[in-house]
Amino acid sequence: MDYQAVLNEIAEEIKPYVGEGKVADYIPALAEVDPQQFGMTLTLFDGTQYSVGDADTPFSIQSISKLFTFTLALDAYGYDLYRRVGREPSGNPFNSLVQLEYEHGIPRNPFINAGAINVTDALISHYDSVARTSKEILSFIREIADDGMIESDKEVTESEMQHGFRNRALANLMKSFGNLDNDVLEVVHTYFEHCAIAMNSRTLSRAMLYLANHGEDPITGKKFITPQQAKRINAIMLTCGHYDASGDFAFHVGLPGKSGVGGGIVAVIPKVMGICVWSPALNEQGNSLAGTKALELFTSKTGLSIF
């Protein structure tokens, strides 16, 4: 299949959608990002990449990082992790306090904000320090992306710390129910720090290969998690990876994927490739509007869907 030709077609057809929606302006450091950007990359199992548009432009991965922290926590805790965080779709906004209160401080899944904050707390307990937790998260992402230069953006981290009152509220609410072990501000800062990691569509699509290959990097041969764990992560990506629009994403795109309010979306085609698309303007549910449409076009044009 001529993947480059497919990407070129998508880039042309997506033009009317690029810039529709709005950037994540509730995070001041992201408010000034140019919405008129679009990049997309496919990475095959032999490392071959096909890209179009702004594929080299770094952006804040935001909630895509939840995928990587969940991987580390699942590897560390196994099935016990589900005692503190669920695995069901939320059906509510990603930062809902009401749902967390109703369910006694147990987040519905690891991809909503409360769930990812709880997973971060679990990692801090596992690694026994905030500093080591941040180091291990960044080291893991660098390894799976094959890029030792990836860093977290301090400006974005601090911007989120100054304005992330609802995320602090989520952490405090879990603490009140006994479902958060460490200091609230330290947990939230560590969470913001990994959300503020900057990558581009090339490095993110490369980073997804281990999940497309049963937990093993097809290029290096390193096994990060078990096939069973990779299966679980992909399943939760499919059902929960796009907040309260996850069903809609599965309906239109048909791939396990995870979005972030920085405008990125990652997806996997099992045993074939990792994908990343980026366009900063978001729809009402907080997912890249043009990015979602681009992935729908890709699966329609190629027939590469899990359904």
TrEMBL record:
Instruction: State whether keyword Acetylation applies.
Output: yes
Record flagged with keyword Oxidoreductase: no
Chain sites annotated for binding substrate:
63, 113, 160, 167, 191, 243, 261
Q: Name one GO molecular function term.
A: glutaminase activity
Q: Which UniProt keywords apply?
A: Acetylation, Hydrolase
Report the catalytic activity: L-glutamine + H2O = L-glutamate + NH4(+)
**What EC number(s) are associated with this protein in UniProt?**
3.5.1.2
In the record, the note on similarity to other proteins reads: Belongs to the glutaminase family.
Note the NCBIfam families from the entry: Gln_ase (TIGR03814), PRK00971.1-1 (NF002132), PRK00971.1-2 (NF002133)
Share what the entry says about its subunit structure, partners included. Answer: Homotetramer.
| Record-given protein name | Glutaminase
What's the source species for this entry? Answer: Sulfurimonas diazotrophicus
